[in-house]
Amino acid sequence: MSLRSLRAKLVLWTIAPLGMIAAIDVGVAYHSAMRTASLVQERQLMGSARMIAEQVRYVDGALVTTIPPAALELFASSEQLEHPDHVYYRVSAPDGTLLSGYFEMATPGKKVVPETHVYFDTALRGETVHAVAFSQPVLASQSSASVLIEVGQTQHARDALARAIWQRSVQEQLLTLAAATLLIVVALRYSLAPLLALRDRVRRRAPGALEPLETGEVPNELKPLVDAINDYTLRLGRYITEHDRFIGDASHQLRTPLTVFNTQVTYALRQTDVAEKDRALRTLRQGLRGSIRLVNQLLAYTEVDEKTANRSALVPVDLCTVARHVLEELALLSQEKSIDLGFECDQPRMLVMGTEHTLTILLNNLVDNALRYTPEGGSVTIRVRHGVDGGVQLVVEDNGPGIAPADRDKVFERFFRLHGEDTPGCGLGLAIVREIAANCRAEITLSAPNRGTGLVVMVGFPAIAQ
Fold first, then answer.
1. Mean pLDDT of each 10-residue bin along the chain, 466 residues long
2. Per-residue confidence (pLDDT) for residue 382, from 0 to 100
3. Which long-range contacts (CB under 8 A, 24 or more apart) does 164-171 make?
4. What are the residue ranges of CATH 3.30.565.10 in the chain?
5. How confident is the model at residue 63, as a pLDDT?
6. 33 Cβ partners below 8 Å, 6+ apart?
7. What is the C-alpha to C-alpha distance for residues 59 and 442, in angstroms, rounded to an integer?
8. Angle at 217 between CA 211 and CA 223, to 5 degrees
9. Coil, helix or strand for 151?
């Protein structure tokens, strides 16, 4: 299974803690095995020391002892060790005299109270020896004197027993971990079955199918995901419907002028009079200019629709500089109609969040609309001023025919024209402005001037967060 697989990750993150716990338990088991083996050895040592102590007695006033074979046979191991253990013993009289055993065997280093024992480690003949020292009062003794019995054994058998106990524990841990892994894999297979079933349902859907997924049999943990998919599908369906409507409207807007062009070209070709032919061609040129503007507006709308989807690309832009550039581009149009084109700015720099390109399109559409609808000899004024709460306001005011209050919401719809097909323009300018303003979190309001007729378009940009 790939680590990119959810199943593999779940297995890994489930088994990894179990493996860590098993590793810790293996370490604990090793120390437990050592304690168990040491306890077994110490009981053997103590048992051997008591057997020897029972054989110490006075004979004719002298202490004598006999080492019973059973005392040493306690240490016999059923395993064939590579290095057999050695057993050492020493029996000392109350005065410390050696009665029996190995004289080089060390004493525990401290006094042993009668009827008690002490375990200690020592070295003998190059090996570590674990030993017990047991103090035993002598039977039939006229005094309270006690003999000291010491029995020691090397560590090979103890270590072998500890390893055997530890290895068995490790084997049990590995078998438990393997069984847990198998059970987890099987459980995950059945637990992920609803997710795989949901995948198969999505795969079986026909291309273009946008109906929501049913959540009846979906586990509770997957319902938020299915709800998110259904919400996205709903928004996608709305977008596709809007896109199809836009394509249909654009096709209708292009089909009508193309039909007129064909009629005008046919009419011009039939004319033999040069003046009449020129008049038809001028009419055709005027229609072509309008169609070119329509195509440019369509391209601008689709471009703005794509770019405004990414608000993370917004940066501080000087709106005064953008306005000056737009006015320079449209100065010729204002001169052709003898329109007084004015510009006012509260400060040399007025920053708003946006992109220079989209703000240029916004201003171009607002000013171009004002110039086209304002009659000859009129006036159009652009103002960039301080707004409320530290924001910036862009105001485009003209003295044209204006827009009735009942139509001010409709003019933002695509391809809407106030007076039908005879109105100049293509009905996309304010729709484009609305898209750009919404992306910049700006608000648009339409109103009439305080005096006379005309239209005032105000775009309020929020303050830039510091």
1. 67 82 88 93 92 85 83 70 84 88 87 90 91 84 77 90 91 88 84 79 79 77 81 82 66 66 78 80 75 65 59 83 92 90 91 89 89 90 89 92 85 65 59 84 90 90 81
2. 94
3. 165/29, 165/32, 165/33, 165/36, 165/37, 166/26, 166/29, 166/30, 166/33, 169/25, 169/26, 169/29, 169/32, 169/33, 170/26, 170/29
4. 313-461
5. 81
6. 161, 162, 163, 165, 166, 169
7. 118
8. 70
9. strand
Residue 132 φ/ψ, nearest 5 degrees? -125, 140
The tokens describing 112, both together, are: 């042993």
Q: Token pair for residue 326?
A: 């737009």
6-164, CATH topology level: Beta-Lactamase (3.30.450)
CATH number of 313-461: 3.30.565.10
- Please report which residue ranges of 204-222 form alpha helices under DSSP H: none
User: How far apart are alpha carbons 22 and 306 in whole angstroms?
Assistant: 56
Taking the alpha carbons at both ends of the chain, their separation in whole angstroms is 49
CB 397 within 8 A of CB 455: yes
DSSP string for 12-69 = HHHHHHHHHHHHHHHHHHHHHHHHHHHHHHHHHHHHHHHHHHTT-EEETTEEE----H
Q: Mark residue 349 as left, alpha or beta (left: phi above 0; alpha: psi -120 to 50; beta: remaining).
A: beta
Residue that the structure tokens 């105000």 belong to: 458
